[in-house]
């Protein structure tokens, strides 16, 4: 069992969620909120503390870019002498070589290199092989809309989503593997900038109904409300009360290394006040 404390919550002094094998976590948020970055940071923390290995089906990430982001989180230094790195010293050649070994030992990729989209059965079959061969404890499927969604003519989308989630939950339980499944919200009309709800996920309410944990990742986009590197982690559902509770946590994103740290209380208070104003005017 792995516990990662989401600190800095405005309403709760300490919000904790324990990542346990055999569960399905749905992660959502509007585009460019940092869903994939947050999951990557979480996996690196789990690997560092517990030694878990992971299989990644991240279809929106290029392999080299994804490897670079994981290396930066692990080594805590930028990969390039680029503008985003500022004056921070980039990782050395020895650190890079050590990081490559760490990547090969800790992460295994599921990639579909041809023109066809992967089906959920194809992904789960390869993930099963990784579990049996490498002792993988976590699977990331990112995102839902990049999978092949051909369904029988007599099957509704709601029924189809329910079937997919049932397959994923069975995989997680049978192989003692935690699954993170990223799903985008539908197009939000008259959006005021507030965090979306789990029921806003495009496709079906089954995403919130059938998951064990539901998380919304939301990034501040209003410079008047506070720094735009503030990330809100909204725990919308925790089925097992032993491992956590619903609530919000606020983190700051380090653009240089990709790490997340506890947000300052004054900054959090400013962001929350801005969200209250947004709700009152919507």
Topology at a glance:
Layout: E1 2-7, E2 14-19, E3 24-28, H1 35-50, E4 54-58, H2 63-75, H3 93-106, E5 107-109, H4 120-134, E6 138-142, H5 157-174, E7 178-182, H6 206-210, E8 213-219, E9 230-238, E10 247-253, E11 260-262, H7 265-281
Parallel strand pairs: 3-7, 3-8, 4-5, 4-6, 6-7
Antiparallel strand pairs: 1-2, 8-9, 9-10, 10-11
Helix pairs in contact: 1-2, 2-3, 4-5
Protein name: SF4 helicase domain-containing protein
Organism: Aegilops tauschii subsp. strangulata
InterPro entries: DNA_helicase_DnaB-like_C, P-loop_NTPase, Twinkle-like
Summarize the structure.
The protein has 282 residues and is of the alpha/beta class. Helices cover 35% and strands 22% of the residues. The chain starts with a strand and ends with a helix.
